[in-house]
Amino acid sequence: MMKNVAEVVKNHPILVYLGILVLLPFALFINLGLMPLISDEPTRAVVTLEMILSGNYITPTINGEFYYNKPPLFNWLLAGVVALTGNMNEFTLRLPTVISLILLAFSIFLFSRKTLGWQHGALSGLMIVLSARILFWDSFQGLIDLTYSLVTFWSFMALYHFSDRKQWLPAFVITYGCAAAGFLMKGFPSVAFQGISLLVWLTYLRSFRKLFSWQHLAGIAFFAMIAGTYYYFYLQTNSLQDLFSTLIDQSNRLNNKEGSIGHWLGHLIVFPFEMSYEFAPWTLLLLLLFNKSIRQAIFSDRLITFSLLMFLSNIVIYWISADMRPRYLFMLFPLLFVVLTKAWQAALAQPGGLLKFVNTVFQLLAFAGALSLLVYPFWSETRDLMGVRILIPVLLLISLSAAFLTLKIRQLIIPLLMIVLLTVRIAFNLYNLPARYASYPDAGYCAGEIRAGGLSRGHQVYVLGDTPFNHDASFYISRENGSIVRRVWSVEDSAAFYITDRKNLANFASIPETWEVKHEFTIKLNETRLLLIKKKP
User: Fold this and answer.
1) What is the distance between the alpha carbons of residues 314 and 331, in angstroms, rounded to a whole number?
2) pTM of the entire structure?
3) C-alpha distances out from residue 507 to 27, 36, 113, 342, 531, Å
4) Helix orientation angle between 14-29 and 2-11, rounded to the nearest 10 degrees
5) How many CA atoms within 13 Å lie on the side-chain side of 301?
6) 234 near 58, Cβ under 8 Å?
C-alpha cells in the first residue's frame, strides 16, 4: 500500500504542498493566545496601550514617562489591530507576528519562484517559517522582529527587481521608503542595511556612480520626508536630545557587555555554529556548497549571486557584534535559504555523497520528529489532557506516513520533513503549551496583576517610590484598570490606589493603620511581592 501511495505522491507532488497548506494554520494559530505575555512582549504591549489610553500616538511612553528605545510604527500597527478586533488580549497582540511571518514566506516565494520554480520557491519561503528558532519560539510571540524583517526583506526584493531592469528611480525610492519604515520601527539598523546593500550591489554591478545620481537623491529625500514628518510632530511635545542617543545605543551591538575580550573572541568562533543551530534543519544544506560543481551551477544565476552578497555583507555586522540575538537576523536568512534551495535543486540533478548524507539526516529527523509525538500520551503533565489519545494518533499517522515517504521519494524529502515539523508544532500547541501554562508561574503572576487592575478600576493607580515594577504588571494592571499606571514619590491623591512593597509602605505610610491592603500579588521581577493599598475612608 505504501508503494502505491508513494507512486501517487511522486506523480502528484502538489498533494504534499496542499498538505502543508492545510496543516500550517493549525500550527500557527492553535493556542496562540494561551500563554501570558513574556520576554519583550509586555514592552510592546504597554507602549501601545498607553498610546490608546492617552490618545498620544507620537511620543511613546511607559508608566507615563517617555520611552526612547524604539520608534512607534510597530505600536501603531498593534493599535490598528486592536481597533479592528476590539480586543487587546494575547492573541490580538501576537496576530501581527503571524501575519508578518506568512507574508514574509509569500514574499520569499515571489522573490525566488522565477529562478527556483514554484515548488522550490515555495520551499524557500517555508524554510523561514519552519526553521527551529521561529517555529518553536518567535512565531508565537508578539515581538517586533518578524514585522521589521518583512519590511527589510521587501527592500532587498525592490533593490534586485528594479536594478535588474535599470529602473533606478523606483529602486531608490522604494528601498528608501522601506528603510524609513524600518527606521520608524527599530531605528538605525535600517540605515545600515540600506547603506551596505546599495554599496555592495552597485559595486558588483559596476554602477557605483548611481550613488551620485538624482534618482539616489530622490530616494534619500523620500526617506527624509517620511522620517522628518514624524520627528516634526514629535518635536511639538518633546525634544530630540535624549531620543537619538538612546536609538544609537540600542542599535550599537558592537560593545561587549560582558566586559571581556575573550567573550567577544569566543562569539566570533561560535557565531556560525550557533546560527546554524538556530535556523536548523535547513542550514544543513550548507554542506552542499562544498561541492565545486554545485557552486558553479548555482552562482551563474544573478538572483543567487545577489542573495549571497546581501546575506554575507549584512551579516558581518552581527558576526562582529558582542551583543547579538538570532531574531535580529530574520531578514537575512531568507536570502540564504534561497541560495540553499538552489543548491539542493542542483544537487538533485547530480547526486553525490554530500546529498546522500544530507538526505539521510533529514530522513532521521523526520522519523525522530514523528516518534517524539509519543511522549504526550505518557507524559504526566499531558496524558490526561483532552483529546490526547485521539489527536496524537492522528498526528502520528500523518507524520510517520510523511517520514516513510522520505525513503521512497528523494526529491520530496524536504517538503515531507516540513509536514512532520508541522505535526510536531501542532502537538506542541495542543499539549506542550497547556502543560507549560499549568506548571509555569507566569499564569499566576498574570492573574494577580489582572486582579489588581480589576479591583482598582475607576480609580487612578500609582506605583509608590522605588517599588520594583515591570512592564508585565504595567500592561495587565493598566489594561484592566483603564488608565496609565504612573510612579509617584509622594502620597497626594487620597482617593487613588497605590502599589507598593513592604519597604516603601513603611517609608511613606506614617500611620499604617490608615491604609488598607486590598490585594497582595507577586510579579515576575525577582518574584517581588507587592501590595495594592488604599486609604481607609
Assistant:
1) 10
2) 0.94
3) 51, 33, 66, 67, 14
4) 100
5) 18
6) yes
- Which of 164, 171, 168, 181 is CA-nearest to residue 223? 181
* pLDDT by 10s per residue, the chain, length 537: 667 777 888 888 999 999 999 999 999 999 999 999 998 999 999 999 999 999 999 999 999 999 988 999 999 999 999 999 999 999 999 999 999 999 999 999 999 999 999 999 999 999 999 999 999 999 999 999 999 999 999 999 999 999 999 999 999 999 999 999 999 999 889 999 999 999 999 999 999 999 999 999 999 999 999 999 999 998 888 877 776 666 666 655 555 555 567 777 777 888 889 999 999 999 999 999 999 999 999 998 999 999 999 999 999 988 887 667 889 999 999 999 999 999 999 999 888 889 999 999 999 999 999 999 999 999 999 999 999 999 999 999 999 999 999 999 999 999 999 999 999 999 999 999 999 999 999 999 999 999 999 999 999 999 999 999 999 999 999 999 999 999 999 888 888 999 999 888 887 766 566 788 999 999 999 999 999 999 887
Q: Could you count the other beta carbons within 10 Å of the beta carbon of residue 434?
A: 17
Q: Cis link prior to 537 (omega < 30° from 0)?
A: no
Residue entry with cell 544530507:
358
Which of the 8 DSSP states describes residue 212?
G
Closest CA to 110 of 47, 157, 59, 49: 157
CA distance 50 to 54: 6
